[in-house]
């Protein structure tokens, strides 16, 4: 299938019409607007990634499993570390996105400057073509009018050929001659203008073809550049997913090394307080000072009352009881 090109399909039958050229310019302006929209989109996405990266970095600094120990603590520390690495990778991706947006902006400005020169040249040609065409059409009207004046003058001479008024005939003949000269001059000027507008047209045709070829090339470059830019953007996002998964895989590997029983034993060995439980609470009799040999709880009945023997009779002649050799003895104990 034959490729279609701008230079073959954007002409107009009217020499002064610029409809085809204007359609191409509108297409290029729409393309420039698309470049700006994609550029703004990528800058906005970069800002989102940067904010997410900073929030994620702040989150990685928060306390998480500070009081944990052994293998689970190592896994949680790895979890925080890789979260920090993920945040840094997102920050790097945000910077890469801004660089791609900058390249797109530079590409857009470069095309704008190249187009500006060509558009200025074409605008000048359009004005020259329109002006010369108007001048040619005006000279054509003058030429046609002078031709009609000449024909009218010739007819007047022919109608008065047989008249006896010689002066009148000579006057008509003089007017006819003047009308002929005027028509010849108008014809020369008209013919000259036609040649001039033809040269302007030829120059415009060449420049129009050049402009179409240049604008088509710019359009192709723009489409290709935008396609590659979006492709690169998607590659960055995909690579970020791969990078994040690789970092998370390190956490998964650490979690695989997390041993529940080992952590339990580590805690026991580190914080154990003894391997023997406390003994039973024994019942102690207030009066006998004996301890109950059984583990059974004390009875709720009152303890049995032990009766003492009768008090000694002070009138008894027991000298051991009644006589105390120590003069300082007293029953009051201090």
TrEMBL record:
Biased composition (Basic and acidic residues): 135-153
GO BP annotations listed: actin filament polymerization
Protein name: Proline-serine-threonine phosphatase interacting protein 2
Ranges of compositional bias, category Low complexity: 156-166
Matching Pfam families: FCH
Family matches, as InterPro entries: AH/BAR_dom_sf, F_BAR_dom, FCH_dom
Start-end of Pro residues biased regions: 295-305
Stretches the record annotates as Disordered: 118-169, 289-323
Highest taxon of source: Eukaryota
Single GO molecular function: actin filament binding
F-BAR domain span: 4-263
Species per Swiss-Prot/TrEMBL record: Sander lucioperca
GO cellular component, one term: actin filament
Keyword annotations from UniProtKB, A to Z: Coiled coil
